[in-house]
Amino acid sequence: MKFTYLSYEKLLNSIIKNNYIFSDYKDNVEKAVILRHDVDYSLEKTIRIAEIEKKNNVNSTFFIMLTCDFYNIFSLSGRNVVDKLLSLGHDIGLHFDEMRYPEIIGKPKEIIDKIVLEASILSKVIGKEVTKVSMHRPSKEIIEANLTIPQIVNTYSYKYFSEYKYISDSRRRWREPILDIINGRQYEKIQILIHPFWYNDEELSLEDTIRMYVNSANRERYRNLIDNFTNLFEVMRDKDVMGV
């Protein structure tokens, strides 16, 4: 499967054609596919994926970080993206980074408290209750702890790895042939993790995707300065932005 928007839409169509039902974590249906997205680097990259899903009458959950170094959901642009996702009928979950709190690593109770805190903050920001959490690059300890979180579904709990076939495109690599698994209909329940960051109109290598993302930061920084620095053009012109 290529990492293009067209290939992603074909994946959705294969899931539908094989009579799977797109479901949420709390649903209890046969032939279920839970579709989730971890948003690690770019909020903006979620929109195209969300629109493709809307076009195909598919709903999914986008897991967003409060503590991300690369985007800010408290900003106007960040909030606009979240509002767009919700308007397309999708749900928002918390993407929790345990490394943000080195003082509580290995302490399940303290980790649960932080998850509950972040979920409550995210709920207030988006105006909708957040009831799901996925872990960002979870440690072995946090997975084995099988955390039970009040009023919040832990997508890394044993249930969703024992009852569901788990497939992920992490680091832009499918560990197993996703289309063969779908078309083979071997599994009654499947959880699929998609990272919108890896998908483009034309397929890019992992190296080119990262290089383009890093270099585009200069352009993004310049655009943000336009709104926050009076008469920026007197100090720096658009043509002076490097690395684009």
Describe this structure in words.
The protein has 244 residues and is an alpha/beta fold. The protein folds into 2 domains: 194 residues, TIM Barrel, CATH 3.20.20; 35 residues, no CATH class. Helices cover 38% and strands 15% of the residues. The chain is built from 8 helices and 8 strands; from the N terminus they run αββαβαβαβαβαβαβα. Strands 1, 2, 3, 4, 5, 6, 7 and 8 form an 8-stranded parallel beta sheet that branches. The model has no long low-confidence stretch (mean pLDDT 94).
Q: TL;DR?
A:
With 244 residues, this protein is an alpha/beta fold.
Q: What's the tally of helices?
A: 8
Structural class: alpha/beta
N-C termini distance: 28 Å
H-E string: HEEHEHEHEHEHEHEH
Beta-sheet strand percentage?
15-25%
Shape: globular
Q: What's the gyration radius in Å?
A: 19 Å
Give the CATH class of the largest domain.
Alpha Beta
Helix content bin: 25-40%
Spell out the blueprint of helices and strands.
Layout: H1 5-17, E1 21-23, E2 32-39, H2 45-55, E3 61-64, H3 76-87, E4 91-96, H4 108-126, E5 132-135, H5 140-144, E6 153-154, H6 159-162, E7 165-168, H7 178-184, E8 189-194, H8 206-226
Parallel strand pairs: 1-2, 2-3, 2-8, 3-4, 4-5, 5-6, 7-8
From the structure above, extract its key features.
single chain; eight-stranded parallel beta sheet; TIM Barrel
